[in-house]
Amino acid sequence: MYNKRELVKDIYYVGVNDRQKKLFENYIPIPNGVAYNSYLILDEKVTLIDTVDVSMVGLFMGKLEAVLQGRKIDYLVVNHMEPDHAGSIGLLKQLYPDLCIIGNAKTFGMLNGYYPQLAGCRQLVVKEGESVSLGKRKLTFYMAPMVHWPEVMVAYEDTDKILFSADAFGTFGTLDGDYLDENINTDKYWDDMRRYYACIVGKFGTATQAAIKKLSALEIRLICSTHGPVLKQNIAKVVGLFDKWSRYEAEEKGLVIAYASMYGNTQQLAEAAAEGAVAAGLKNVVVYNVSKTDASYILADIFRYNGVILAAPTYMNEIYPLMDSLMHKIEQRGILNRSLGLMGSCTWAGGALKKLTAFADAVKWELVSNPVDNKQGVSADDYQKAFDLGMAMGQKLLQ
Ligand code: FEO
Predict the structure, then answer these.
(1) Nearest Cα to 95, choosing from 70, 115, 125?
(2) Ligand 1 atom closest to Cα of 36?
(3) How far apart are CA 138 and CA 345, in angstroms?
(4) How many Å lie between the centroid of ligand 1 and the Cα of residue 229?
(5) Whose CA is nearest to atom 3 of ligand 1?
(6) Helices 295-304 and 321-333, interaxial angle, to 10°?
(7) How far apart, in whole angstroms, are the C-alpha atoms of residue 247 and residue 202?
(8) Ligand 1 in reach of 85 Cβ (< 6 A)
(9) Ligand 1 neighbourhood includes 167 CB (under 6 angstroms)
(10) pLDDT per residue over 45-83, tens digit each?
(11) What pLDDT shows up at residue 262?
């Protein structure tokens, strides 16, 4: 019943949409869903590139059968072992027991751990730059460690110049009606792509830079990643975005104000700082309540903009826990070169500002103005100090 989705002659899209899952990796919201992409090459050796999350395996098998029409799969290329792509390997191997798995040495280290029942199965271990002939076509493999796990590799098909890129150049968001970027309006993906980068690959900027540099030597006409649309018209744009994000370079001038507030006082400091930044002429100002907006959205905007103000109350002599969590996530990603403003509050003894200052030291961002230190209710003087911090930040970011 499934339509065959032929990308180029004899290469088919056989991925699936996941519209059920609410949280990717069980913690990142995906209101627009996600696609697990997989590609099937019909050649003398029938070759599948990556599988899908095991929760979608029934649908996946149906899509495979629609293309295979009774043929068997000879090779399974495992570019990435994370279970959203490797999750169906065990069942696939049961259906196609003669299938040979292609991976690198690290792939098989993980495969044997996840699927001990496959120990001793047919395996082909590839190294950097090695090619495997499929018949008319061949695949050449390049290692891309830590984009996003250590075993990640990509496969290049040189007849049609296709890069099967694993997680690189992917995005959250299902594929609605078609999988090829030139057939759909891709505007809906850009915010999700930034958030995907910030959450999934954001820690691995150096590794992403190394991969982009290595792959820049290839002529690429199509990028087939494991998530999101196949790229044809948007290759330069998406590679450019991944390049910018992995250099931790902001896309544009703007300010993220992330605040925590139990009873609204610290929120007033955030409001005042936002007013100050806009009064300085800065147009891109976004204010987030860390208790309401998931950190993934805040992180994505920190990748997008060049300035950040964090504001939080003291909690148990330390800092409000959700701000602590956000700071940890920022630190984990090693985001570089942002301007930073700090505002702490307390009722009897401080603690938040100490934590915020320690964060500033850890990330080595440039501190703009003195931190605002508020006790109990927000006085006119406190409000003015927060406004002034926002204005100084606005002026700084617009330089
Ligand atoms: Fe989509 Fe790192 O797996």
Answers:
(1) 70
(2) 1
(3) 62
(4) 15
(5) 82
(6) 50
(7) 10
(8) yes
(9) yes
(10) 999 999 999 999 999 999 999 999 999 999 999 999 999
(11) 97
- Identify the pLDDT of residue 114: 94
Tokens of 384: 């003015």
* Ligand 1 center from residue 221 Cα (angstroms): 23
CATH class of 255-398: alpha beta
Residues of the chain with CATH 3.60.15.10: 6-246
- Largest Cα–Cα distance in the chain? 77
> 181 in ligand 1 pocket by Cβ < 6 Å?
no
Question: How many angstroms does the Cα of residue 121 sit away from the middle of ligand 1?
Answer: 24
DSSP string of 147-176, one letter each residue: SSSTT-EEEEETTTTEEEEETTT--SB---
Q: Is 151 in the pocket of ligand 1 (CB under 6 A)?
A: no
Query: What's the gap in Å between 227 CA and the centre of ligand 1?
Result: 8
Using a 6 Å cutoff on CB, does residue 84 contact ligand 1?
yes
- Calculate how far, in angstroms, residue 107's C-alpha sits from the geometric centre of ligand 1: 14
Specify the pLDDT at position 106. Answer: 98
pLDDT at 1: 82
Residue 351 near residue 388, CB atoms below 8 Å: no
Q: What does the pLDDT read at residue 119?
A: 84
Report whether CATH 3.60.15.10 matches the domain 6-246.
yes
Is 226's C-beta closer than 6 angstroms to any atom of ligand 1? yes
Sites in the chain below the pLDDT cut of 70:
none
Count other Cβ atoms within 10 Å, centred on residue 380.
Answer: 7
**Ligand 1 centroid vs 362 CA: distance in angstroms?**
28
Tell me the CA–centroid distance for residue 320 and ligand 1, in Å: 31
Query: Cα 171 from chain centroid?
Result: 7
pLDDT tens, residue by residue, 89-106: 999 999 999 999 999 999
CATH 3.40.50.360 domain extents, the chain: 255-398
Region class of 364: left (phi > 0), else alpha (psi between -120 and 50), else beta: left
CB atoms within 10 A of CB 71: 12
In this predicted structure, what is the pLDDT of residue 31?
98
Looking at ligand 1, which atom is closest to the CA of residue 149?
A: 2
Give me the pLDDT at residue 120, please. 84
In ligand 1, which atom is closest to the CA atom of 227?
Answer: 1
Query: How remote is the CA of residue 149 from the centroid of ligand 1, in Å?
Result: 8
Task: Decide whether any atom of ligand 1 lies within 6 Å of the 203 Cβ.
Answer: no
Q: What is the pTM of this model?
A: 0.96
| Cα dist from 339 to 126, 127, 192, 362, whole Å | 44, 42, 24, 14
Amino acid sitting at position 153: M
